[in-house]
Design a protein that fits this description.
Number of helices: 12
Radius of gyration: 19 Å
Oligomer: single chain
CATH superfamily: NAD(P)-binding Rossmann-like Domain
Pfam family, one: Epimerase
CATH topology: Rossmann fold
CATH architecture: 3-Layer(aba) Sandwich
Largest sheet: 7 strands, parallel
Order of helices and strands: EHEHHEHEHHEEEHEEHEEHEEHEEHH
Number of strands: 15
Shape: globular
InterPro entries: Epimerase_deHydtase, NAD(P)-bd_dom_sf
Strand content: 15-25%
Family: Belongs to the NAD(P)-dependent epimerase/dehydratase family.
Distance between the termini: 29 Å
Protein name: NAD-dependent epimerase/dehydratase family protein
Helix content: 25-40%
Organism: Rhodoplanes serenus
Length: 360
């Protein structure tokens, strides 16, 4: 029997992984204890999606387990052992602001939880592929030292800079920068996953994601940029933009494109490799540009205000260079630009009770 295990299975990327790999393995095991609701409030709960996965997918088994619970995780891995062919680790505390309020909880979820999973894999499923969703925040605020040029709706990198054509690559330093405490805990997990690949020879891959988004995102003010922006546009809820004249730029990758990258790694796994992963030059936008698109797609205005105080470690301009991944996996490409992604998010928000399925 071939088994895939997905942590954070009720979240955006986790649920997409369940849906996708459920078509390719005999059983998918989901781990999600709805920590997101405890972190961000009831509106961020993933229980609705976990319930739909359980009801809809015959081969899906859900476990309400905290990834920090070493005994429970070890029992689960021991149950399936070498039948486990894939572990997709998406569970995390994902917010800068929340991490600053409770650093201990943030670190134990992001760093210790990852270690618990890696050790369980090493003991019980050493031939599995371990895919970890890291973050571009491991680079701290180093991207803010890049030479930036201000335009009418966005900041953009100086066209003479080497990053101008393709974005930021994996050689950017992680040192001598302000990360935010969230960035620190993700650095620890990121390096752990690399080391279990390089030191122990396990098949591990790290994806340093930009903004990950899609129609199943339970967006909140502290996490889920595009999804929460569209939610506020649709509902009339006020939205606050923090700093950088609302011209800060992010690349955004649709969850379907990210899962396609995961699939490529599963079929041809590396050992301890790191890939920057986001929308790249094909899918990026500033806050002002995202607001305009949300208003256009939703057909209504967003009630937003500007707070000139930027958040600690917040990037002014970040676009991922995808060439390292594309060179390793030439069959993969970005298929969703920002408009198509926002249209999908809009559709997901207004038709929450439609059947589950990946957006084509």
């Amino acid at each position: 029997m071939s088994v895939a295990l997905v942590t954070g299975s009720g979240g955006l990327v986790g649920s997409e992984a369940v849906l996708h790999f459920g078509r390719h393995v005999d059983r998918v095991i989901g781990i999600d204890n709805d920590m997101r609701a405890r972190l961000f409030g009831a509106e961020a709960s993933t229980r609705w999606l976990s319930a739909r996965l359980t009801e809809t997918l015959p081969g899906y088994r859900h476990h309400d387990i905290d990834i920090r619970d070493e005994a429970a995780i070890d029992r689960l891995f021991a149950t399936y052992g070498r039948d486990l062919s894939l572990i997709v680790h998406t569970a995390a505390q994902p917010s800068h602001d929340w991490a600053a309020r409770d650093p201990r909880t943030d670190f134990t979820i992001n760093a210790n939880g990852t270690l618990v999973l890696l050790e369980a894999m090493r003991r019980h499923a050493p031939d599995a592929v371990f895919i970890f969703t890291s973050t571009n925040k491991v680079y701290g605020d180093t991207p803010n030292r890049l030479p930036l040029v201000e335009h009418e709706t966005r900041f953009e990198i100086d066209p003479a800079h080497p990053y101008a054509a393709h974005g930021i690559d994996e050689t950017m330093t992680l040192d001598q920068s302000t990360h935010s405490l969230f960035g620190v805990s993700k650095v620890a997990a990121d390096v752990l996953v690399q080391e279990y690949g390089r030191y122990f020879g396990l098949r591990t891959a790290v994806f340093r994601g930009g903004c990950l988004t899609g129609p199943n995102h339970s967006g909140t003010q502290l996490h889920g940029f595009l999804a929460y922006l569209m939610k506020c546009t649709l509902t009339g809820r006020p939205y606050t933009v923090f700093g950088h004249k609302a011209k800060q730029v992010r690349d955004n990758i649709h969850s379907a494109d990210l899962i396609a990258a995961f699939d490529a790694v599963w079929r041809d796994p590396p050992r301890g490799e790191v890939f920057n992963m986001g929308g790249g030059r094909a899918a990026n936008c500033s806050m002002l540009e995202a607001i305009a698109l949300c208003e256009e797609i939703a057909g209504r205005r967003l009630a937003w205000r500007y707070d000139p105080q930027s958040r600690v470690g917040d990037h002014i301009w970040y676009v991922s260079d995808l060439r390292r991944f594309q060179d390793r996996y030439p069959g993969w490409r970005i298929t969703h630009d920002i408009r198509r992604t926002l249209v999908d998010i809009h559709g997901g928000l207004v038709t929450r009770d439609t059947p589950l399925g990946l957006t084509a």
